[in-house]
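So, who can interpret the following?
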Amino acid sequence: MTFGYWLLALLCLALLILSVVLTSVSVVERTQARSLAALEPLIAQADAASARSAVVYFSRSGNTALAARYLANRLQAPAFRLQEQQYPLGLPGLASALKGAHVGKAVEQALGQRSQQALDISGFDTLYLGSPIWLYSPAPPLWQFVDNHRFDGQRIVLFNTYNSHFDARYITELRRRVMARGARSFEHVTVLRGRMPRQIGAPAMLATIEERWLERD
């Protein structure tokens, strides 16, 4: 058998393995989304105009959404979910998420170029900005939000849920953009959930949030 035959066979095997991995991740994401959706429902908040804090977040499989709902309930703050139709659950959405995160690294400014509906956040003293980590960086929708808003005089707290690692360079760049848009301070808090399928459960994640994010305030 020729070298070309073995090369083609190895390529087919690699594609098969990649397909199995992506399918497995997609199944886990759907399962997580269903199980987490009913946890920590948002408590009806007072008029947003009287709240001093707000939670703005993007979530795909539901982990960051759970963290955001917990924060909003504990802080008695309104929560605003960033809606992005291009990242639905399932293989097409997972592929779009990987592509979006990869493009953002190839062209730094591309992270914030897409248009996004503006929120009126001017009345809040503290903003919690939440996102999962994709390819070591906050997900593109959060970058887009930052690039489309001002944070004059506000305390910004970035919170991330992630599986393995994040790259400090992206956090530094996000901080630079936030501060350039008028913020008075920037903080970063995280929850390391672990790799699939040995991730911490929702109770452990919320306990970490309570201990490391809220008790320090």
Remarks:
- Residues 125 and 182 are 12 Å apart (CA to CA).
